[in-house]
Amino acid sequence: MTLTGKKVCFITGACGxxxxxxxxSIAGQGYTIFFTWHSSEEKAExxxxxxxxxxxxxxxxxCDVSKSxxxxxxxxxFLQQFxxxxxxxxxxxNFFSTPLPDVTEQEWDSLVNTNLKGTFFTMQEAARIxxxxxxxxxxxxxxxxxxxxxxxxxxxYTVAKSGIQHLTRVFxxxxxxxxxxxxxxxxxxxxxxxxxxxxxxxxxxxxPLRRLGDPLDIIRTIIFLLESxxxxxxxxxxxxxxxxx
Length: 245
Ligand SMILES: NC(=O)c1ccc[n+]([C@@H]2O[C@H](COP(=O)([O-])OP(=O)(O)OC[C@H]3O[C@@H](n4cnc5c(N)ncnc54)[C@H](OP(=O)(O)O)[C@@H]3O)[C@@H](O)[C@H]2O)c1
Prior knowledge:
By secondary structure, the protein is α/β, with parallel strands linked by helices. Helices cover 44% and strands 15% of the residues. Strands 3-2-1-4-5-6-7 form a seven-stranded parallel sheet, sandwiched between helices. Strand 1, helix 1 (19-28) and strand 2 form a beta-alpha-beta unit. The structure holds NADP nicotinamide-adenine-dinucleotide phosphate. NADP nicotinamide-adenine-dinucleotide phosphate binds next to strand 2.
């Protein structure tokens, strides 16, 4: 099947709390969606159903982004179904606490391979397709403002997100002017449900704009980037001013 004429978006991690909202809103912008899921099959089915209400030709595939072979396979399947790639969003991520003295090799590999290696090989596969196309396409990577903070219990995660920010700049320079590559770094959008109200209020006190983020804040930034032709290699912090503190 080919879909010449309609824009196509490849998005990883589209079953996530924010990722699923991003995928739906991009479908609402007129894109056909090809998304990856990893372990949440039921959530993936539900997400695909919602997306297909807006964009019926959309597809999904299981893919462990920590394995480059899975990523290659996902792009092979993608190319059998679609003849263009307008937008890549790398949203797949894992996140858990790793107190510095106790970090294991397994934890390091899991966090760095999913967040950094996975993003690199996904962006590389997408760029190979995009650079041959006779029109401008876009890559948006999802990072985290924690890349610019010093969180003692999250070193492998934050170093991986920091690495994605650097990759964003390298890809932007390498593939200009054909591919615009930018990164969105959210502050806290979703809160671990185990955190009590008092802890959440303490988090809000650190944010100059006095509220946590909302998926809509991220979606508005993505739409802004989709409409921009003169921005590349940028990291956009969407954090209510949290990094100003
Ligand atoms: N939510 C926030 O407050 C926040 C704050 C800062 C930055 N961010 C960043 O924004 C992005 C979206 O966040 P989110 O809230 O949607 O995250 P999320 O709810 O944790 O979802 C993460 C997604 O990544 C997928 N994933 C995990 N390991 C994977 C693997 N090995 N291979 C492929 N997919 C894998 C999961 O798929 P399965 O469920 O199918 O396993 C899930 O769809 C992420 O990059 C995150 O780091 C979010």
